[in-house]
UniProtKB/TrEMBL annotation:
Domain of life: Bacteria
UniProt name for this protein: Molybdenum ABC transporter ATP-binding protein
Organism ancestry: Bacteria, Pseudomonadati, Thermodesulfobacteriota, Desulfuromonadia, Geobacterales
PROSITE patterns xref list: ABC_TRANSPORTER_1, ABC_TRANSPORTER_2, MOP
Domain ABC transporter: start-end pairs: 1-233
NCBIfam families xrefs: modC_ABC
Amino acid sequence: MELRMAVSKSYGPFRLDADFSVQGERIGIFGESGSGKSTLIGMLAGLVEPDDGTICLEGETLFSRGEGVAIPTERRRIAMVFQQPSLFPHLSVRNNLLYGYNRCASQHRRVEFDPLVQVLKLEGLLDRGVNNLSGGEQQRVAIGRAVMASPRLLVMDEPLSALDDDLKFQIIPYLTRVCGQFGIPFIFISHSLLEMRLMTDTVLMFDKGRLVEQGSADELARRRMGLGQVGYINLLRLGRPVGSNGLHTFAWGGGKLLLSAAPKSEAGLYELSSRDIILFKQHPEAISARNLLKGLVVATFESGSKTGVELACGSDRLIAEVVHEAAAELDIRPGGELYAAIKASAFRPLG
Ligand SMILES: Nc1ncnc2c1ncn2[C@@H]1O[C@H](COP(=O)(O)OP(=O)(O)OP(=O)(O)O)[C@@H](O)[C@H]1O
């Protein structure tokens, strides 16, 4: 998917000025509340008229003030999923899903009912009304309805914000699977950096109506750490434990990790703060931490009063954080070897 937008829009004192070009299948739009994210995608979808500028999707001009082009919303083939599922209350789950399908011209249909229902695990819900579904089930139906319209782009405006953490991490794999399987590129909007890192490859970051950064969500997370605002959160997809002997054992980094918390789902997603990793120059003789990993320093970077240290452990990566004095004493530099100690209890299961 290739999107080019050069648009402006003012609401009283608020002015959005966006001028960017982005390519990819999993794009994120990130920014604080009020930074203009919804206004931007409203213009893309044809729900908000720009004051000026042009919008091109896959080489097609959707809007151009200069050329007098404004393709109507329904012909843009951009499906939207919002924070609140807003399903049709009088229709069953099946008919909510088919609504998008029936409105899609047959030459554009790429998504069939049965495989979609399977991916979203909606089989048991098809004949139910939508009013008594749980929040997570309703959001799965809303995603399904949008995808059944075989859009050329799916725009999701904070689709997870109304869900609690557990449900959020249950929905994320469905979302990525459904878009991946049916080849639907998406734009995902959120003010959660964690959601950006889990859902997207390229992120556009907005602040006060301006695009301030464009890059990967991991780079964004590291740069924020560089500003000294937050410790870096390592996200580890550990899958299923390979053994349990009081602790949960996972294959990782060319060796094993021992964790005290069980995974919450098949994905075995955990977060680990860079502040919970202790570095040693030599193999320590005896330590209480259950995990000791040998790693190669691939990069170091400033993080306020700390030094961020990126370690390659086998084919996996870890970012640790130490004070500058420790970095100097340990002579931490790219190419050097270090040992990383991590307590079994430092890993927090996400989903
Ligand atoms: N229809 C409108 N009329 C007047 N002002 C508006 C309108 N829509 C948005 N705004 C204003 O434009 C600014 C940007 O709003 P927008 O909803 O695009 O931000 P956002 O980044 O999506 O925020 P959030 O994360 O809270 O949804 C805000 O100051 C908002 O009050």
